Amino acid sequence: MLKKYILKPIKHVILLFGITFILLEIVLAIYIRIAEIKIELPTYTFQNTQNFWFDLDENFGTLHLPNDTYRQKKYCFDVLYRSNSQGFRDQERVINAETKRVVALGDSFTEGIGVQLEDRLTNLLEKETDIPHLNYGMAGNFGPTQYMMLYKTLARKYSHEAVLVSILPSNDFIDDDYEINLRVGGDRYQPFLDGNYPDYALVYYADSIQKSKARPGKQHLINKLLKNFTHSYIMYRYVRAMKNVQAIPKDKLLAASQVPSYFNYSEKQFNRMRYALEAIKEHAGDRPVMVYSIPIFKEIKAFREHGKNPLGKQLKAVCDSIGVGYLDLLPRTENLSEDEYEALFLSCDGHWSEAGNAFAKAQIESYFSYYKK
Q: How many angstroms separate the Cα of 148 from the Cα of each of 136, 156, 319?
């Protein structure tokens, strides 16, 4: 009898907790979509046993584990990423090939975050031209200095006829800024150019890649369950991260007017980008190098308001001086309606949508003489 009286309240508590948890999950699932919070959602699988981006390479830092998979789900896309044996989101590539090939360098836009492989820029170019495009794009705070180091130490070892380099001003300047990253206490293993153009020293945070915060490590079972099956845990981590940002002293943060972008960058920041492009061209030798710059949604909108584009002019001058082709995608958006240029980007993420990748492919193919042969 006593056992019955003890178990009954416990059952009620468990039932109440279960109902409350289910209601919370429903509310959060709806809220995340309505509020358009750009966070990953539960996959309801055990596919994601760990992260997908790590600091693994001694030269350029960020890389995927070889032959790994990661499913990224947000409210506007659900994509399974796969890495090849070299740790890139690409098919297997042999070092020496008899066919023409293009090496593609860049960050998350080049890697194709948020879209299926067949809808990604390099895959579209490869399908259209029948020229293999070796995709070395990498998300996870990857800037021009890393493009330079990746090409110098790895990508150029693979036979290729041309190099395609993407520039994303909205984060390439800040990803490459040694002083800014020192200011906020960088704890990643990432190469930086320290000094003044053209006399730079290549420096890394930490004296060992092992000290990076982004190192492989299996998650505990409870973390796997919470991350892959609940909105509650994901929102908890999101809120905690926001609080950590808010707790950073104001003198450590950049004012909004100081955040680098297409229209706001210093000479020192530009010169780092310039140096990286010049180095890529030097390592490419006689191979044609093609550079294109990518505006994000708010930059397209701002350009329509003030019409200024100093970066486009400066990059063209640098590229012309070293014999590199340059395509500025920003003015190429002028003839698009607001709905059309908004459709170029994923609403829940900010990366190119399928339409954005197709737009870039059409512009690149029609502009660079390499693709007109």
A: 11, 10, 15
Residue 100 burial (CB < 10 Å; 0-12/13-18/19+)? middle
Q: Is pTM, for the whole model, over 0.90?
A: yes
Task: Give residue 246's pLDDT.
Answer: 57
- Reported as type and span, the H/E element at residue 58 is none
Burial letters 146-177, b for 16+ CB under 10 A, else e = bbbbbbbebbbebbbebbbbbbbbbbbbbbbb
- Residues with Cβ < 8 Å from 30, sequence gap 6 or more? none
| CA gap 90, 103 in Å, rounded | 12
Q: State the pLDDT at residue 2.
A: 47
* pLDDT tens digits along 262-279: 999 999 999 999 999 999
**One-letter identity of residue 51:** N
Closest CA relative to residue 112, chosen from 161, 72, 54? 72
- Taking the CA atoms of residue 180, residue 185, residue 186 and residue 192 in that order, the dihedral angle to the nearest 10 degrees is 40
| pLDDT of the residue at 50 | 77
Under DSSP, is residue 28 helix (H, G, I), strand (E, B) or coil? helix
- Of all residues in the chain, the percent with pLDDT exceeding 90 is 65
Stretch among 47-61, 132-146, 212-226 having the lowest mean pLDDT: 212-226
Query: Higher confidence at residue 239 or residue 373?
Result: 239
- Close Cβ partners of 210 (under 8 Å, ≥ 6 residues apart): none
Bridge partners of 134? 103
Query: Which residue, 47, 113, 110, is CA-closest to 79?
Result: 113
d(CA 67, CA 47): 13
Helices (H), the chain: 2-34, 108-111, 121-129, 144-153, 169-175, 178-183, 221-229, 231-246, 267-284, 297-306, 310-321, 338-342, 354-367
